[in-house]
Amino acid sequence: GSAAAPTTRPVYSGGAWRTATVLRPEHLAADTRIDGLAIVEMPDTTIVIGEGQWAEVDAHSNLIIHLDAR
């Protein structure tokens, strides 16, 4: 079967409750772009992509976070 779709959950960020996208490793194919506010739950760590930030997955499965909105 296919992977479940990303979910959302409330998180406290920037002084207020906001909705964050929650992703798992199966959502991170090469060239995937993730716009913050997002949480990436890996087996051994959790990565937060803040509001105004974005991330991309490269060909080696590295998650590269960019601090500027684009």
Account of the 3D structure:
There is one protein chain. By secondary structure, this protein is mainly beta. Helices cover 0% and strands 49% of the residues. The protein has no helices and 7 strands. The protein has strands spanning 7-13, 16-23, 33-35, 38-41, 46-49, 54-57, 63-66. The radius of gyration is 12 Å and the shape is globular. The N and C termini lie far apart (33 Å). The mean pLDDT is 92.
Topology:
Blueprint: E1 7-13, E2 16-23, E3 33-35, E4 38-41, E5 46-49, E6 54-57, E7 63-66
Parallel strand pairs: 2-4
Antiparallel strand pairs: 1-2, 3-6, 4-5, 6-7
Tally the beta strands: 7
Strand content: over 45%
What is the SS-derived class?
A: mainly beta
The residue ranges in which pLDDT falls below 50 over 5 or more consecutive positions are: none
Cα end-to-end separation = 33 Å
Shape: globular
Average of pLDDT: 92
Rg measurement, Å: 12 Å
- Quick one: biggest sheet? 4 strands, mixed
Quick structural gist:
With 70 residues, the protein is mainly beta.
Keywords:
70 residues; mainly beta; 4-stranded mixed β-sheet; 3-stranded antiparallel β-sheet; 0% helix; 49% strand
